[in-house]
Amino acid sequence: MTVSDRLRDTIAAYCSDTDDLGDLTHDVKSGVLDWFPAEFATAIGAGEFTPRTWELLTDVALDDDDDELLDRYLRQVWSAAAPTEPYPLDA
Question: What CA–CA distances, in Å, run from 38 to 20, 61, 66, 81?
């Protein structure tokens, strides 16, 4: 799988500050981004995100070996987008 343009654009627009993901939560719940949880889950499950790709998408500085920090960011975004669903790698 390759990350779609709309997923890239959405991550870039909403996820550069994981301390403020309220807009993402709102837009998923309102239906504007109803596709986001499924597509994000698929990308997570496929291993599409690395520290380097996340840095390129969000401008959040990560080292190549920051897998734990990346996992924390992905979980924060997941919790904002799909709070009642299990994290894709835990399901």
Answer: 21, 26, 25, 10
The rounded distance, in Å, linking the Cα atoms of 21 and 47 is 22
Task: Summarize pLDDT for 8-30 with one digit per residue, the tens.
Answer: 999 999 999 888 899 999 999 99
Q: What does pTM read for this prediction? A: 0.93
Rounded to the nearest 10 degrees, what angle do helices 36-45 and 5-14 cross at? 100
* C-alpha distances out from residue 7 to 32, 62, 65, Å: 13, 20, 23
Residues 6+ apart with CB under 8 A from 62: 51, 52, 54, 55, 69, 70
